[in-house]
Amino acid sequence: MLYFTMAVMGLLITPGPGVLSVAGVGAGFGARRGTQFIAGLFVGTNLVGLLVASGLWGIVRNVPYLEEILLGVSLAFLAYLAFRIAFAGSDISFSRATRMPGAVDGLLLQFVNPKAYAVNTTLFGSMPLGFGDPVAEIATKFLIINLIWVPVHFGWLWLGITLKRLDLPPKTQRLVNYAMAVAMLGAVALALVAGSSGSGTAG
């Protein structure tokens, strides 16, 4: 169980479309909207987990080009965020939008987030906990995952809000913007490599 818990932490802490967008909503729209967005992501990630744990995802993923479409949408979203960050001037922001995102946006994002499927496939498809009852094992895995998932995402929300409130000098803020954009484009590049090798993961 310790090995499984450590694996969950490693898989969830690494940046992906979900946590990066959480930070963006926090930076652009504040704690209230960020919390609503997390609520949508939370429902979405658990629904994805149910698809994987029930075996339905193994059937659905055979739809032609489905994984490629999910990867493409996710990469486009990350590239868009990186572009907006790099050209945000002296205004630190993970993302900008004309409409304030909420729970529905978070829910929909998780359904096109290849990392959500990849992570859940890894966690539910391997790393047995040793329970004799498969239902008890799946329930325990859901509990462990969610106990880690929630604080990780609120941590990214806090990061977005904090960066927005730092009021750094314009030059420093631009450097932060560029660094964030480069890091996100690096995630896009890693996702492209993973996608071309058939793993179906996203940065």
Structural summary, described in words:
The protein has 203 residues and is mainly alpha-helical. The protein has one domain (16-196). The protein is 77% helix and 0% strand. The protein has 8 helices and no strands. The protein is globular and about 60 Å long. The two termini are 26 Å apart.
Chain oligomer state? single chain
Query: Share of helix among residues?
Result: over 70%
H/E element sequence: HHHHHHHH
Shape, per Cα inertia axes: globular
- Our count of domains comes out at 1
Which structural category fits the helices and strands? mainly alpha
Write down how many β-strands occur, each being a DSSP E stretch of 2 or more residues: 0
Mean pLDDT over the residues: 75
How large is the radius of gyration?
17 Å
The low-confidence runs, each spanning 5 or more residues with pLDDT under 50, are 94-98, 198-203
The largest sheet is: none
Distance, first to last CA: 26 Å
Please indicate the percent range of residues in DSSP E strands (runs of 2 or more): under 5%
Alpha plus pi helix count: 8
